[in-house]
Amino acid sequence: MTAAITTDPALAARILAGGGVVGVPTETVYGLAAHAEYPDAVHRIFTIKGRPSGHPLIVHGADAGVLDRYAEAVPDEVRRLGDAFWPGPLTLIVPRSGRVPDVVTGGRGTVGLRVPDHALTLRVLELLDAGVAAPSANLFGRTSPTTAAHVQHDLGDAIDLVLDGGTCAIGVESTILDMSDGDPVILRTGGIQAEQIEAVIGRAVARTARGPARAPGMLEVHYSPSARVLLADADGLADTLAALGAAARPVVVIAPRHVVADGATPILRPRGPRSEDFAHDLYGLLRDADAAGAATIVVVPPTGKGIAIAVRDRLRRAAAAGASAH
Ligand code: TXA
Ligand code: MG
Closest-lying ligand to the alpha carbon of 31? Predict the structure, then answer.
């Protein structure tokens, strides 16, 4: 059985208002949404995903008013960041207000807030007149969904509805910026780069904090397909393939257009040559490789800066699962 699917934001808003759980499109990946102020509904998200309760959820709002409702003592530079990048792929970690239930943040004093850039979901949020708590709509530790069909495939009839907003425009999760503790720190890379943030707030941003205290849920092993993932650079691809034993086969390669393999191994390609194309297709291609029966997926990540940094981060974590986890 799979969940019902719709393109009607009013239906999605009604189900959320009634305490339901709905897969919703954003510009990054699909989220699994519940009314942010209904603890029982939010609790269902953790059960459905198999997600540990200590991993806090992002609250999504229709506009920068999300700061007034769900954050406390919002500094001017946080407002400036919202004005500059929302709607868009930036999550701001700020001290939470009393309207955020403990279940959303795992009892932490901070909350992640963002305004997603997708017309259908913005309409849902307007109609609901409240925020939704929403992690990515995948099973815990696995590849994020970038189409409604991915959500249906992963979560089946455990959820009440999927709102179909097409394929996600960006394809990797939002940049997470911790603004709660003096010095700004990027906890997760994404579509908004540190340089862009620095240009708005006029001070330095630290490029990634590690460890559970500052970044709960940012696990070293994450975003994994069923097959084992190996990374190779363009020049080393043929050697990597040649070195794989029988137990590692069948193999599927994911690589940009200019990369050639050994002529025998099937290759899946992003839709175009840019890092943005790789990000857009990343999770879909990993799922396609799984569906093709791959035991091993060898990926040649994009080089360079910008969104390529986030793509390499996700692939490194997907590869960290190694043979042992599968
Ligand atoms: O693009 C995205 O951000 C997507 C879409 C659906 O909006 N959402 C998403 O949510 O990726 P999720 O739950 O898969 O990842 C959110 C991460 C958590 O793993 C956690 O590390 C971090 O956000 N996070 C959330 N609230 C936090 C907080 N209060 N303090 C520190 N980290 C937090
Ligand atoms: Mg996730």
Answer: 1
Q: Which two tokens stand for residue 283?
A: 């999770």
Which residue in 42, 99, 31, 26 sits closest to 65, CA to CA?
Answer: 99
Spatial distance between the Cα atoms of 59 and 37, rounded to a whole number of angstroms: 10
Task: Say how many C-beta atoms besides its own lie within 10 A of residue 238's C-beta.
Answer: 15
Per-residue pLDDT reduced to its tens digit, 235-254 = 999 999 999 999 999 999 99
The Å distance, Cα 105 to ligand 2 centre, comes to 14
The alpha carbon of 135 and the centre of ligand 1 are apart by a number of angstroms equal to 6
User: Would you place residue 234 in the very low, low, confident or very high pLDDT band (cuts 50, 70, 90)?
Assistant: very high
Ligand 1 atom closest to residue 32's alpha carbon, by position in its atom list: 6
What's the pLDDT tens digit per position in 275-321? 999 999 999 999 999 999 999 999 999 999 999 999 999 999 999 97
Share above pLDDT 70 across residues of the chain, in percent, rounded to a whole number = 95
Closest atom of ligand 1 to CA, residue 31? 6
> Ligand 1 centre from 21 Cα, in Å?
17
Identify the burial level of 152 via C-beta atoms within 10 angstroms of its C-beta, where 0-12 means exposed, 13-18 middle and 19 or more buried: buried
CB 30 within 8 A of CB 148: yes
